[in-house]
Known about the structure:
Blueprint: H1 2-18, H2 30-33, H3 36-60, H4 63-89, H5 91-107, H6 115-124, H7 195-205, H8 207-262
Helix pairs in contact: 1-3, 3-4, 4-8
Amino acid sequence: MACGGTMVGVGIWAFVEKNKFFYQPIQDIYDIIFDLSIILMVAGGIMFIITMCGFVGALRENTCLLKFFYITLMFIFLLEVVAGILAFAFKDKVIDTLSGVLKEVYIEGYQNDEEAVMDFFQENFDCCGVKSYEDWNINEYYNCSEANPSALKCAVPYSCCKDPDELTPGLNNILCGGNALYSNYTDFKVWTSGCVDRVMYIAEKNLPIIGAVAIAIAVPQIIGIVLGYIFVGQIEHQRVRYKAYMNRRRYRDEWDERDRHRY
Length: 263
């Protein structure tokens, strides 16, 4: 519950800070799916509501809230399992679809609103673009078309450079990737592999860690589902016993009352 509330707070803060000086209106579903601040707010809000229902339901022995808690948790868990199976079974299709979406959101939208995420991946995963450095040809500022008047024409972002601060240590040279998109460019000071391939390569090398993280996420959910189900069963069992006890008591009182009238 506290974790959910924290996620909501961080998401609100990030959203406000991002739009403090320039508000970028939501134009399509991708603006929501790939906006980390919105994801934090939605995920945190859902987590807060579910855990609050479980907490209040256990505290007040309210079976409706407890059933909502473990059934919703079970539904989310099943969605995660199904999504994982489908992603594994149709891996190539998922990667191609995701790559196309990422190009539209992070490559075409770069320099407008999506620099931070793309720069983070390119700097930390030694990659450039989604599938390759040539993806930057679809960006309005970096493409090599004759109609492009930008000073960044045929370049790639500094975050693609292998050594972006080679001229002045600690200060990134935003033109270090200049001319990288020219067909005859050979002096490669930028990473050429795409970020999707790099992330997949790193993920395959660290499968045990990914498996451990998946288990760490799944186990609390399974425990919550099982405990919620057991607790509901115990409450309903106690209510049945209490109702039976009250019925027996009422019948006994009625017989005692008849006996008094009889004598």
